[in-house]
Amino acid sequence: MVKLSSKPLWVSPSGYQQTDDEFKKSIIDNVSMGCKVYIGTDSMLYDDICNFATVVAFHNNDIRVANYLYKRFKMPSLGYNDLQTKITEEVSLAIQAAQLVMSYCPDAEIEVHVDIGRNKRNKTRGLLPMVRGWVSGMGFNLRIKPESWASSSIADCHTK
Fold first, then answer.
1. Which residue of 26, 60, 124, 137 has the fewest CB atoms within a 10 Å radius of its CB?
2. How many Cβ atoms sit within 10 Å of the Cβ of residue 133?
3. Exposure of 62 by Cβ count < 10 A (0-12 exposed, 13-18 middle, 19+ buried)?
4. Nearest Cα to 62, choosing from 37, 39, 34, 38?
């Protein structure tokens, strides 16, 4: 399993790289304003590499906040040719990010978004019981397709 903390800095949509202290302040500031936190990871497998992106998104309609930070990195593709291994890594990275947010703001309302589905067309549907148990066992709410926008939309954009 990849350690999220050993990977590059968190980045804003404008490209600004945040130090660990700036990232912590962003989390605390957004949660204290009443933002809900949405966390997701997605990956894209290429011939020789697998691009991963983990997103921490903030949203609050009442105060018109919609923002996110992401961490993107590349791993050798060799270990990620198996779909279950790749999804397991995505879930692990999302949970690590959720635990980090929780360490800064224990009262944060967090949803973990995982890019898997339950319909018959989805190859990942067989992983749903494992993922559901893992995420809920860690104390987080789970969202899957089509509600998993943090992973299937935002993180997906940063894997390309």
1. 137
2. 11
3. exposed
4. 34
